[in-house]
Write a sequence for this structure.
């Protein structure tokens, strides 16, 4: 069983839809990253969370430490949001990042 | 704002050659991480440095070595390159271990 599980693996939606990507983990963590990777490979850090909720523009990330679960939400989705979204946890033992497999999001106009 | 800089962005080498990848962290970031992402795969942690000392080691082959210099930039040296080394190599930096990591654009290495 992978230490970090994301769902769904692939998601196609229409422009304007509310998007939710989920991440569950099984290891002890000090924090959790949500990252965005566009075709061509560049990785952008969207959020780093250790508790509660963060909001940046149309993006919202939440984490429930007790349930070992985090969600990334995108409101009013737009085709430019199309990318792979990766959940990565920071292990509390050695600060290494353990990566989820990513969710490939396609937003159609 | 300054970001993490990696050079070169693209590199083509032949088998058994050597390659050096460079990473320049965000100013005042003292921690550097290296990751390897093969085609269609998750990034894999290779090695990290804090204050010019190796802080952690992941799945880095013995053919690879890395170091962090006095100006905090880091270099990943890869020798006896194999076809399987073809990948995107990311560097990330953070202000201290365990803090938010900021990623560079990556170096795409192709081994022919």
């Amino acid at each position: 069983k992978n230490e970090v599980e994301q769902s769904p693996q692939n998601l196609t939606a229409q422009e304007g839809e509310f998007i939710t990507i989920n991440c569950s983990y099984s290891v002890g963590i000090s924090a959790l990253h949500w990252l965005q990777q566009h075709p061509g490979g560049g990785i952008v850090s969207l959020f780093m969370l250790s508790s509660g909720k963060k909001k940046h523009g149309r993006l919202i990330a939440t984490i429930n430490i007790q349930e070992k679960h985090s969600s990334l939400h995108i409101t009013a989705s737009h085709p430019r949001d199309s990318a792979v979204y990766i959940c990565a946890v920071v292990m509390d033992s050695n600060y290494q990042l353990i990566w989820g497999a990513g969710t490939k999001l396609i937003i159609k106009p | 704002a300054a970001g993490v800089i990696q050079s070169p962005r693209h590199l083509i080498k032949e088998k058994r050659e050597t390659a050096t990848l460079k990473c320049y962290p965000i100013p005042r970031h003292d921690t550097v991480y290296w990751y390897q992402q093969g085609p269609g795969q998750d990034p894999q942690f290779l090695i990290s440095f804090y204050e010019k000392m190796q802080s952690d080691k992941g799945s880095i082959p013995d053919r690879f070595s890395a170091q962090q210099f006095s100006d905090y930039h880091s270099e990943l040296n890869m020798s006896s390159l194999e076809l399987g080394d073809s990948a995107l190599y990311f560097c990330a930096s953070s202000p201290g271990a365990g803090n938010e990591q900021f990623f560079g654009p990556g170096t795409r290495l192709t081994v022919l």
About this structure: The mean pLDDT of chain B is 93. The interface with chain A takes residues 33, 35, 37, 42-43, 45, 48, 55-56, 58, 88, 90, 97-103, 105-106, 108 of chain B (CB under 8 Å).
